[in-house]
Design a protein that fits this description.
The protein is mainly α and 354 residues long. 31% of the residues lie in helices and 4% in strands. The chain has a domain of 173 residues: Glutathione S-transferase Yfyf (Class Pi), Chain A, domain 2 (Up-down Bundle), CATH 1.20.1050.10. It contains 10 helices and 4 strands, in the order βαβαββαααααααα. One of its GO terms (molecular function) is glutathione transferase activity.
């Protein structure tokens, strides 16, 4: 997909780079946040009512923005209500592809490239082919790729189809604080690592690096005396931070040059990340092999050799974290999700699981 001179396009969100190019020389990285904002809602006000079995969530495990939606879907028990399509970890400038599926086609949508679903929505779709995307299986067209709104709507608009014991990821008493934390985490951490990795000048990198570590130090202090980011239960805020933290040592530390120190050298953040990883619904959605394949292969201008590092050692993710001593109730008045469904299990050779 084409990019404006001012905007470096990313493979996960929003746009694909052209021929593996993700940074623009001399430019600060700026994320394009224009999405298809149509929503699937309980009242169907945008023309797409919540309807179990009608929609397919296409979400690559490699992508942190898509990983959020996989986690929320699992925590809320929406597996029967909305199916899951899983593109492979690598792609070209055109689109995510379903190369992990038999015959290289999504078994429900029957397409080879996610691009096909975008072009069914708009044959002249001008921007990036991004994940996560919700596709209407009755038409084969994308409904929305607004990743931030997708997880919020899974919690609110799809409530009727939540499993018994589903946690409240957006407790009303903490909504304002969750939104404040989410905003800072998005600009400074979730997107901050990309501002480092895709910086087109030394100055842009230096400024991005300073902002990122200011925010990570703030989080380290915040999580030193509390188990979760907001309140005493897991919320949407924890989901959003986790998908960046779980990628930090494997890719952001080296590949994106976010290398003041590794995550495992920050006691509170490292304990917090392990606590979540070992919580059902989090680590069982993570595929470290796919994550490394994606970043090191797709970002050709950052890693022109295409070599994927064998490290780091991932065994630490399943070591005791001791965070229970801080109290908290992971699922509040709810319960953990059940076992991962056979068709959605991460290859055990790709990631350590507790």
């Amino acid at each position: 997909m084409s990019s404006t001179p001012e905007t470096a396009q990313t493979s996960e969100n929003p746009e694909h780079g052209e021929g593996g190019k993700y940074s623009v020389k001399g430019k600060e990285y700026t994320r394009d946040t224009r999405y298809i904002t149509t929503r699937v809602t309980a009242d169907g006000r945008d023309g797409f009512p919540v309807e179990p079995g009608r929609y397919r969530l296409v979400a690559a495990r490699a992508c942190p923005w898509a990983n959020r939606s996989i986690i929320v879907r699992r925590l809320l028990g929406l597996e029967d209500a909305i199916s899951l399509g899983l593109p492979g970890p690598t792609h070209d400038a055109r689109s995510w592809t379903f190369d992990l599926d038999p015959g290289g086609r999504d078994p429900v949508l029957g397409i080879e490239r996610l691009q096909e679903a975008y072009f069914k929505r708009d044959p002249d779709y001008p921007r990036g082919i991004t994940v996560p995307a919700i596709v209407d299986t009755t038409t084969g067209a994308v409904v929305t790729n607004d990743f931030a709104q997708i997880t919020l709507d899974l919690s609110t608009e799809w409530r009727r189809f939540h499993r018994e014991g589903a946690p409240d990821l957006l407790p009303e008493a903490h909504r304002e604080e969750i939104e404040e934390v989410n905003q800072r985490v998005f600009t400074e951490v979730n997107n901050g690592v990309y501002r480092c990795g895709f910086a087109g000048s030394q100055r842009a990198y230096d400024e991005a690096y300073a902002r990122l570590w200011t925010a990570l130090d703030w989080l380290e202090e915040r999580l030193s005396g509390r188990r979760y980011l907001v309140g005493d239960t897991i919320t949407e805020a924890d989901v959003r931070l986790f998908t960046t933290l779980v990628r930090f040592d494997p890719v952001y530390h080296g590949h994106f040059k976010c290398n003041r120190n590794k995550l495992d050298q920050m006691p509170a953040l490292w304990g917090y990340a392990r606590d979540l990883f070992q919580t059902p619904g989090f680590g069982d959605t993570v595929d470290f092999w796919q994550i490394k394949q994606h970043y090191y292969v797709v970002h050709e201008d950052i890693n022109p050799s295409g070599i994927v590092p064998l490290g780091p050692d991932l065994s630490g993710w399943v070591t005791p974290h001791g965070r229970e001593a801080l109290g908290g109730r992971p699922f509040g008045d709810g319960t953990p999700p059940g076992p991962v469904r056979e068709a959605e299990r991460v290859d055990p050779t790709h990631t350590p699981l507790p």
